[in-house]
Each structure stands twice: as C-alpha cells, then as structure tokens.
Amino acid sequence: MNDTALLPPALEAIRAHEAEMVDIRHQIHANPELGFQENDTSDLVAARLERWGWEVHRGLGGTGVVGTLRAGTSTRRIGLRADMDALPIAETSGKAWASKVFGKMHACGHDGHTAMLLSAARHLAATRQFDGIVHAVFQPAEEGLGGARKMLEDGFLDLFPCDAMFGMHNGPGIPEGQFMAVPGCAMASADTCIITVKGVGGHAAFPHNAVDPILVGSAMVMALQSVVSRNVPPLQTGIISLGAFLAGDAPNVIPGTAELRLSVRAMQPEIRDLLERRIHEIASAVAQTYGATADVNYMRRYPVLMNDPTQTAFCLDLVRDWLGETGLVPKPEPVPASEDFAFFLEKVPGCFINIGNGVGSVGGCMVHNAGYDFNDRILSTGATYWVKLVERWLAKV
C-alpha cells in the first residue's frame, strides 16, 4: 500500500481504514470456503456489521448475511450485494496470505468483493448521509450453485424489499479503478446439458454386432457445432461447448453408453430457448439414425443478466461525475461469462458493474486461475463507489 499518490481515487475517510479492510480481505483469502459452506466468513461479516451498528439477519441461503441500515425518514430501499464463496482450485499465487486450505482458493475475488462492501458499510454507518434504507447482502454460493436463487427462495425480497439492487465484480484486464457496465443483456445465461447415448456394447472385433455409442456421440458433437453457425442469427450470440466426452474403459470393448457434457450460453433469452430446443432435436435425430437412443438432461442454471437501462445510466453517470470519462471503459461490450446476480435482476431493476482489477502484473491475471489474486489497491475505490451510489440514490431531499 505504498505509492499512495498512484492509487486509484477514493474517499479519504475510507482510505483511512483501508489497512483494516486489507487485513480482512487477506483473512478471508487465507481461509476460503466453498459455496453454502461460508460459515467462518459469514461469522466475520455478521460480527463486523453488528459492531458498526447494522441490523443483522442470518440464514438466508444457509450462510447468507443481510445487514440493514436506516437513516432519515424515507422508505426508499436499495440492496448492495457481495458474494463470499471460493472455488475448488489449488492456489499457486505465492502470496503471504495465500490459501491455507489445499484445493480451495478465492480465485474470483469474492474475498475482495466482501471487503469492499464491508468497508462501505463501516463508512455508511458512521456518516449516514442518506435518506432511506440500505440492505447490504452478503451472498453464498455464487460459483455455479445459485446462491442468489436460494436466497430468493428463502424469502429475501419478502423480508428485505428493494426498489433497486446493485452488484459489483472485479475485472482483470481493465485498468485498476476504471468501471464498466452495459445496459440490457450484459452477461450470458449458463446452462449445463448431459446427453447419455445408449447403444449396444460388444467385442471390438465384431463391431457389426454392436451399436457404438462413441460413434454416435462423435456424430452428435459435429452436428451440435452447426447450431451456432446455422441456427443462431449471425449478429446474436450462442455458445455450445463440449467439456467432457466419457465412454469406455478398454481398447477392445465397445461400450454400451457414452456421455457428453455440454456448457450452453446465450446473450438473449430467445437464443437460450433456441439452443435448448436444437440440442434436444439433434441428440434424438442423430441417435435414431445410428440405431441408438439419447437421454437429454438439460439443466437451466443462470439466466441472462439484464441490466436495467435506467439504473445502469444512473451508475455510469455517477462514475462520470466522480472520475470523468477516463473513469469508464470506452465502448464496453457484453461478456459471455455468467453471474447469478442475474436472479436478483429478474425480480428487481438494477445494475451489475465491473471495477478494473488492473492489467499486466498488477491484477491482470484472469479469474478462475490458480495464480489469481484480488488487487488490494482497488478496495477503497470500490468501497467509495458503493458509498457514492447510496448517497446519490438515497439523496436527502
């Protein structure tokens, strides 16, 4: 934390307790917990919020924590969300605060997201320069397990109604402290599809007596690659990626079954529907052609993340007024990754924004990488964004 003149902008009052927030971030990073297992992390979050005067509710989504802070007389209310879970990756960053738990690490920056929102929560409790209600939402299980959906199923919006909700994620490859948000379709849906091809096993010397599911599955792979190129309109986005093809154990045995595991993504809900339909049609038709059958288990996981245009414009104007045009990524584009904050945005208008984690050796390592680490230099900048968002959205009249 040296070279303070070169740090990205932040409120001085937030910068004053930055060292404490860095320590919290390092503590969380060194003790990663996977989705729905964030017991120690949620304990830490709840204890800090209570110390600073927030009302604390626990248990939504199992390990979720919601802090509520009121100021003034307005009944307007907003939600700010940070995620808490880690990934099943063995860390290789070599940092002094690297994971102490082999096979688990904060490879996506959720430790930093939690620390940024905690930093903002401390400042908001001390100043209360707003008129309304703030819900600070610390969510479990973002990484593929749908923690946001679970919190909603457990009654989050019944207990904590929000007029708008906002989320933030670090962005490696974006200059530290710059912000990026896209109105409308901002991030892709993410679905998983398991196709089980059922043929007839047999001796490799007598293939005519078998129905080879490997051959059938291979034909499916090639046919599925035609969906994006021939069924999806050229100016729209669809992705079908085969992540695993499992079949057989011995070179002289034709197996009875094969399994294809697909990741399916789209930037528009209607394209998502199209991809699902075509996968079913192709799997059935190809299997029938070869005398096999196919069972398709299509699992809808995360929906398309839709940023509300009005709330996104609000967030971008806030950054522009604070940092100028240089504080925004020029010509931002949607990204095909997914994010379960999309479940909240299906229910409540809001905006999911990215804050630059840095480029090159300073925060540029991509997330979900064993060498990744959150850039501590942006903690106070992200916290300042949260504070400015609350103070403007819930401005005193």
Q: What would you note in describing this structure?
A:
The protein is α+β, with helices and mostly antiparallel strands. It contains 11 helices and 15 strands. The mean pLDDT is 96. A 7-stranded mixed β-sheet has the order 1-2-4-3-5-15-6, with helices on both faces. A 4-stranded antiparallel β-sheet has the order 10-12-8-13, with helices on one face. Helix 2 (18-30) packs antiparallel against helix 4. The protein has 2 domains: 4-187 and 304-393, Aminopeptidase (3-Layer(aba) Sandwich); 189-302, Alpha-Beta Plaits (2-Layer Sandwich). The chain is elongated and about 80 Å long.
Q: What's this model, at a glance?
A:
By secondary structure, this protein is an alpha+beta fold. 34% of the residues lie in helices and 24% in strands. It is elongated and about 80 Å long.
Radius of gyration: 24 Å
Strand order of the largest sheet: 1-2-4-3-5-15-6
Q: What is the helix content?
A: 25-40%
Number of helices: 11
- Which CATH C-level class of the largest domain is it? Alpha Beta
Write out the CATH superfamily name of the largest domain.
Zn peptidases
Poorly predicted runs of 5 or more residues:
none
User: Can you tell me the CATH topology of the largest domain?
Assistant: Aminopeptidase
Order of helices and strands: HHHEEEHEHHEEEEEHEEEHEEHHEH
Helix/strand-derived class? Answer: alpha+beta
So what's the overall shape? elongated
Strand content: 15-25%
Give the biggest beta sheet: 7 strands, mixed
Question: What's the rounded overall pLDDT mean?
Answer: 96
Second-tier CATH architecture of the largest domain: 3-Layer(aba) Sandwich
Using DSSP, what is the number of strands?
Answer: 15
Beginning-to-end CA distance, first to last residue? 38 Å
What is the count of distinct domains? 2
